[in-house]
């Protein structure tokens, strides 16, 4: 049987060697006699997993010492609420730079708890782009500025760290983290749920500059208090042990692949390969302006509904899975996370060219 | 090598057949071509897992139609905050019946958000017991009464559903759920994190009588709003797919074991076997009064520190693991969840008797 390639946006493909290792040691975690699924969250074996995951992240991302690296329940959505609950209110407000679905959702959730200023930065003309920073209606007095560096549904990304007057920059890197080096010190808080490049669903990673903790409000729910996670080295309650174990295994794999510079080059090459097919096509339409195109999540339209259906069905027959667009956008979406093998991108782009050629001849 | 028996309090032992099944299908979930670790949270394959887990719970526990069965992130601790945030405030208050560590923690967390009345019901005399219900200082006007039916650290349990004047009874059944039949209709909300009898860490199960939802406050965090979970059939954001899959497998196993009446009898027989050794012992001391003894978590003291250390070390040599008491209590704790085989209880009780006999002869 042909190898399956899975381009889902998250939960996403895991590297095959990671899956095989998990399977291999599932019944006895390294001589403990326990499955990792049974491992106590206060055991030495788990503390080692947690600490190695933190160290792996610190090494790969070169996280400065003044940042704490924390593990939380609930995915990135938890952060949408935690941020305003911890840091806003009592005259403090935040700016939310909105460039698509997820940054807008973060903004809407924050607005339920505090004053936030929605700064629209998505330009919807002939093509989609991000307005130049001079045009952003930001307020230097804002306690923080929040943005999402890569919008998975629109397929639009910031070309670099946005230039803003605020000192406290908060970023949702759920889809981009571990795909390229990041200058962590430019940020105050970075978060990412783990079901894309970091492992499985149910976990959220937070990197926070510790001096931010002095401003935390009371009361916030026990599991929504950043200070507690710092104080208790993330073990505020029973952590999702298995998800943190998978993260550590993924970090190991990233290291053996050569680290972030290598993965970044690979990501650029693959996405270029796919955009080339899109640019040469008269069937597939990606509407993001060059310069703002995501190298990670690449959506495109096929305007005829029957043709779209054919495309998805034939892709599936070729074991190219997870290509259906987000339910709010329709069309096709290709997510090119780290775990996708090059062969997957080759088979996909070949199929796309063939599919279009066949249609022109009928 | 001798089979390992693991008596940890949670994360706890999983049934061996469940572990083997997970391992068996880890690389390809039933012909989807994906690992269950990669399965999208909005795929038909996952919806089937979720729906089968709900149905499994409904069948085993005979959950009435007027209850919704929901899956949330974060374990039981999330409920400690969700309850007051959703239902208290604006003149509404709650009674918290306190019989040990976890009910007191739930109470303390609720008190951070709303008026709560801590109703002390633990009697600490010669032995530990629960005060008769006539003595509880409860207020019939309370919006709800919260209790924990089985305290895992004290090893104390309610002999039945407590008699209280409140109509709305909320129970933390984290350690007891699936160990015996429950008259669900006597409750308004039952919750349990899943790392004891239901699967792995990172998930919380909630059963809620739907008419309760009319009273929910605004705003509560997106992931802390019971109504959203009901409206979206638990898919409020990316759910911990794998934890729900493990739950479904555990429910299947419970069914093949004969269901809750059978597991209840087994639990009573095993705990009686262990209490017999404790009652005959001059070395091991359990301080809970008969009638209030937990059949699930059984703590006991060994008063000499060196002897305690010997006990734990020798137990480990016999592959009897996870016996260390909670860090707040010390001593020994035996958790006899469903997944422990009878042979584990036999080996443990034999070891305990031998250990004591050997000490008397030296």
Provide a concise account of the structure shown.
Chain A is of the alpha/beta class and 362 residues long. In chain A, 35% of the residues lie in helices and 18% in strands.
Structural class of chain A: alpha/beta
Major sheet attributes of chain A: 7 strands, mixed
Q: H/E element string of chain A?
A: EHHEHEHEEEEEEEEEHHHEEHEEH
What is the fold named in CATH at topology level of the largest domain in chain A? Aspartate Aminotransferase, domain 2
Count interface residues per chain for the largest interface: A-B, 61 and 61 residues
How many helical elements of chain A?
A: 9
How far apart are the first and last residues' alpha carbons of chain A, in Å? 30 Å
* Level-1 CATH class name of the largest domain in chain A: Alpha Beta
Which oligomeric form is depicted? homodimer
What is the 3D shape of chain A? globular
Mean pLDDT of chain A: 96
Number of DSSP strands of chain A? 16
Radius of gyration based on Cα positions of chain A:
21 Å
Going by CATH, what is the homologous superfamily of the largest domain in chain A? Type I PLP-dependent aspartate aminotransferase-like (Major domain)
Count of discrete structural domains of chain A: 2
Strand composition percent of chain A: 15-25%
What would you say the CATH architecture of the largest domain in chain A is? 3-Layer(aba) Sandwich
Which parts of chain A are unreliable, with pLDDT below 50 for 5 consecutive residues or more? Answer: none
Strand order of the largest sheet of chain A: 2-12-11-10-7-3-4
Helicity range of chain A: 25-40%
């Amino acid at each position: 049987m042909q190898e399956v390639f899975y381009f889902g946006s998250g939960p996403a493909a895991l590297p095959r060697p990671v899956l095989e290792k998990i399977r291999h040691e599932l019944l006895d975690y390294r001589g403990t006699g326990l499955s990792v699924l049974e491992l106590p969250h206060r055991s030495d074996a788990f503390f080692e997993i947690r600490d190695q995951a933190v160290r792996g992240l610190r090494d790969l991302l070169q996280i400065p010492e003044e940042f704490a690296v924390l593990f939380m329940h609930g995915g990135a959505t938890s952060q949408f609420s935690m941020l305003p609950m911890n840091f806003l209110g009592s005259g403090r407000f935040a700016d939310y730079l909105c460039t698509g679905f997820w940054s807008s959702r973060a903004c809407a959730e924050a607005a339920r708890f505090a004053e936030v200023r929605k700064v629209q930065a998505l330009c919807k003309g002939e093509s989609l782009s991000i307005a130049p920073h001079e045009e952003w209606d930001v307020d230097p007095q804002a306690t923080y500025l929040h943005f999402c560096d890569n919008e998975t549904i629109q397929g639009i990304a910031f070309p670099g760290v946005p230039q803003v007057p605020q000192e406290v920059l908060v970023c949702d890197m759920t889809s981009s983290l571990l795909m390229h080096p990041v200058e962590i010190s430019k940020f105050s808080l970075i978060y990412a749920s783990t079901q894309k490049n970091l492992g499985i669903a149910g976990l959220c990673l937070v990197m926070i500059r510790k001096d931010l903790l002095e401003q935390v409000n009371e009361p916030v729910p026990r599991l929504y208090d950043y200070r507690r996670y710092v104080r208790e080295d993330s073990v505020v309650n029973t952590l999702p042990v298995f998800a943190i174990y998978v993260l550590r295994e993924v970090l190991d794999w990233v290291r053996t692949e050569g680290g972030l510079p290598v993965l970044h080059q690979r990501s650029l090459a693959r996405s270029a390969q796919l955009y080339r097919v899109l640019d040469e096509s008269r069937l597939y339409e990606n509407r993001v302006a060059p310069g703002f195109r995501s190298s990670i999540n690449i959506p495109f339209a096929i305007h005829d509904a029957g043709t779209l259906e054919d495309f998805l069905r034939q892709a599936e027959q070729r074991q190219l899975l997870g290509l259906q667009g987000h339910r709010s956008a329709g069309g096709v979406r290709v997510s090119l996370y780290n775990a996708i093998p090059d062969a997957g991108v080759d088979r996909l782009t070949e199929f796309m060219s063939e599919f279009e050629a066949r249609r022109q001849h009928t």
